[in-house]
Amino acid sequence: MENEKVAAEKKRKKRKGKSGRIVIVLIVVLAALLGGCSFLSKEADATEVSSEAETESPGATQESETETTETEETQESHEAAEDEESGEEETEDHFVEKKIVVATDMHYFAEKLAGNRCDSFVGMARGGDGRVLEYGWEVMDAFLDDMKEEDPDLLILSGDLTLDGEKASHEELAELLEGLSEAGIEVAVIPGNHDINNPDARRYTADGAEKVESITADEFRDIYADFGYVAADSRDPASLSYLYKIDSANWVLMLDSCQYEPKNEVGGMIRRETYEWMEPILEEAEREGARVISVSHHNLLDESGVSRTFYDNCTIEHNEELVRMLSDHGVRLHLSGHLHIQHYKEDEDTGIYEVVTGSMVMAPCHYGIVRIWNDGTYQYDAKPVDVDGWAIRHSYHNRDLADFTAYSESILRRAAIRDAIRDLNRHIEDRHAFFTDEKKQEMASYYADLCVNYYEGRMYQIEEAAKENPVLEDWNKIGYVSELSDFLQNILEDEAKDYGHLKIPSVH
Known about the structure:
This protein has a single domain (2-24, 67-394, 497-504), classed as Metallo-dependent phosphatases (Purple Acid Phosphatase, chain A, domain 2, 4-Layer Sandwich). The strands form three sheets. A seven-stranded mixed beta sheet has the order 6-7-8-9-10-12-11, with helices on one face. Strands 3-2-1-13-14-15 form a six-stranded mixed beta sheet. A two-stranded antiparallel ribbon has the order 4-5. Helix 4 packs across helix 11 and helix 13 (404-430) crosses helix 14. It has 17 helices and 15 strands. It has helices at residues 2-14, 78-86, 119-126, 136-150, 167-182, 217-223, 225-229, 272-288, 311-314, 319-328, 387-393, 399-402, 404-430, 437-455, 463-468, 471-478, 483-493; strands at residues 96-103, 154-158, 187-190, 202-205, 208-211, 234-235, 242-247, 250-254, 291-295, 333-336, 343-346, 353-356, 366-373, 378-384, 501-504.
């Protein structure tokens, strides 16, 4: 224990004092966003999808894609660039005190387990739920470059670090994160439902897939010792939860919401012992006037848009108890993942906001930047990993990487079309309904448009056109209820906002 304290103190000395920066900058506001519990099916059925499935249908909603305009680099410092990105002007009495980056659901897979991207691996990747697993390594490398540029006070990785908990994947990812530590960037991780005691851990070869070793909770803590656990200011004896103090005024409560004993489960919960460990920490934070941001893999709130049948596996079990404890002690921001959807929600009774960051390997491959202003305001901005720029810098001549936004959206669209056609075929037969292949393709393309925009947190851009599109009437008149049709309706019923950006004003 003494050695850990010494190590923790060394970690402290590495931290950069970024608070108190005072910069006056004229802001040019950046343009719009790029156009776990992921809803889309994880199993491929290539025979159900024609070659037309990867092309736009006449019934597809027309999107207005606003290209993100690059602001001219007229500022003389990195701090000025950060200020411009924040969308606010810094003044002597109004400045960013701390910057946190949160990324989730990166589903990293060790290269040596992919069989040199053999056919069985590619088949698995292409038959999944829309994640860009074929380029998972490139996305991770680009993300690491982004982090060195962002230079946050803390990088949070909120679970589903690996594809399916492979020990080799955890070890390889930890090696990559060491590069950030060497650059002076602090990293804090917690597990997701994919990461521990996962029976689905596999390697892929020319002969197919075979089981490989996963890890225990103790092994998780050992592998990621340098990424939160050694530097923790308090650890929960009953789980992998811990408290991480960025400084005396800004604390991060990393909550292990996963169930992995005696076996891995999808759904989340907070252990009774963890609540008992949390409460005195929150009381201490109140006494000392510290801001607390809580983090979990699973969702704190029932996020809109998710099929209601998925709530049990997405929202933390008995979440009302956790909401009450956090709100009683003044916590205002909770960060999570799991859904693969970019979203946020306010609990109207308590005023707590939850921001769900989309999967880092699902279009548009977001991570989130949380700025804590000195007046207590929280500002969240989603930002896509700059895979395109990384590919140019490293001289990759690959058309998928050259326009990675379009590529990642095409993968999500393909998965959505496949699932919609399969769902239509299954249910219209049960109802003795008939649609031509052309009509089913049109309906599937409509659903795919909704998915791409909703997963990216920008349904507001197409909401009006989507609700007026006559293809919606085709979906409605079938009158069947399935998980997919439920999801489609929930997307349309959800409040259309820019879920990539949020400001939570200070409470005085």
